[in-house]
Amino acid sequence: MSTDYPFVSILLATYNRKSWLEECLESLFNQDYPKERYEIIVINDGSNDGTEKVLRAYEKKAPCTFIWHTQRNQGKTVALNTGLNNTTKGEIVLFTDDDCVADKNWIKNLLSAFKDEKVGGVGGKILAYKPKNHVEKYGVFFDQEGSVSLATGNAAYRSHVVKSVGGFDTQLIGLEDIDFGVRVRGKGYKLKYTPEAIIYHRNYCSLDRLIKRKRSEGRQLYNLSTKYEHYFNARKLIIKISFEAVKKVILLGNISKIINNRNRKGIFLREIFEAVVLISTLLGLIEGMLRRKTYDYKGDKIHDKFNFEFD
User: Fold this and answer.
1) 185 and 223 share a domain?
2) Rounded to the nearest 5 degrees, what angle is found at the Cα of 135, between the Cα atoms of 132 and 140?
3) What pairs with residue 192 in β-bridges?
4) How far is residue 110's CA from residue 122's CA, in Å, rounded to a whole number?
């Protein structure tokens, strides 16, 4: 990178989350990083809840370059691509979401992992933000270590790498961040995990919402699998997820016999929710396969056999 403080672009899409967006922007304004060395770009994806009023107010108080744009509602991938088209001079593009709050050292800690020129992207740790119940505390656990993709709630990519893969795939119905990471790896770049770069994420507030979301992600996973026909396929994913779910159930049976303190109770609850996530995702994946006319990928298929494992 050109200096100790390379210029970076922070990109996020938002839709009808004005109160959450305010907290997100406050955390980005308060970064321990030179204000003249970063810009924030917000794409408002057709919100009708007063988001534009919030953006106008924050434009006036922003300590750094602040750019925002409103488009008609077209979905997150289109919004992210619009944002990429509006980045001006960032050497590194950082991604987060409107339901996230960034640690004050988030930028610095993400950038510290780019010393190796072969690293094309970096992801950090995502923790629950002010959980109010067990679902919010244990329901979604993001650990990006060893992953071939990076969640756009906490990710950074070199700008020339972003351009080389052509942005986000608008033909997908979801999981655009997984697809993006696979394509970056396919170009020969490494993805790196740095747990010091922390984002706090608002998790799902009820078990019902968590299950619905994970079933939806299962259908999206089937859609993604039909894009990469020779890399991974739905049947192998079903076997893999089923195996992991069975392991969780067996583990739960063993843990339940030795629960006698608060720490073990926390482990037990996390394992329960991870089992729920696996089973819900599995059901959605099977549903996608059964309804393949609806969920088959409609764009150009990728036939490459990548030499890295899908995780």
Assistant:
1) no
2) 115
3) 122
4) 6
Instruction: Return the C-alpha torsion angle 166, 171, 173, 178, nearest 10.
Output: -30
- Structure-block tokens of residue 241: 């997820």
The pTM (predicted TM-score) of the whole model is 0.88
* Own/partner pairs, 66-70, CB within 8 angstroms, 24+ separation: 66/39, 66/40, 66/42, 67/39, 67/40, 67/41, 67/42, 68/41, 68/42, 68/43, 68/44, 69/41, 69/42, 69/43, 69/44, 70/43, 70/44, 70/46
What's the order of all strands across the beta sheet hosting 92-95?
65-71, 38-45, 8-14, 92-95, 155-158, 119-128, 190-201, 100-102
- DSSP-derived 3-state class of residue 283: helix
Write the pLDDT tens digit of every residue in 172-226: 988 999 999 999 998 999 999 999 999 999 877 788 999 999 999 999 999 999 9
**What is the Cα–Cα distance from 72 to 85, expressed in whole angstroms?**
16
Give the C-alpha separation, 311 to 126, whole Å.
Answer: 17
Residues 223 and 243 in one domain: yes
Q: CB of 113 within 8 A of CB of 194?
A: yes
The verdict on 195 and 273 lying in the same domain is: no
Contacts of 37 (CB under 8 A, 6+ apart): 5, 6, 7, 8
Task: Please answer whether residues 195 and 124 qualify as being in contact, where contact means their C-beta atoms are separated by less than 8 angstroms.
Answer: yes
Q: In which domain, by residue range, is 108 found?
A: 8-204
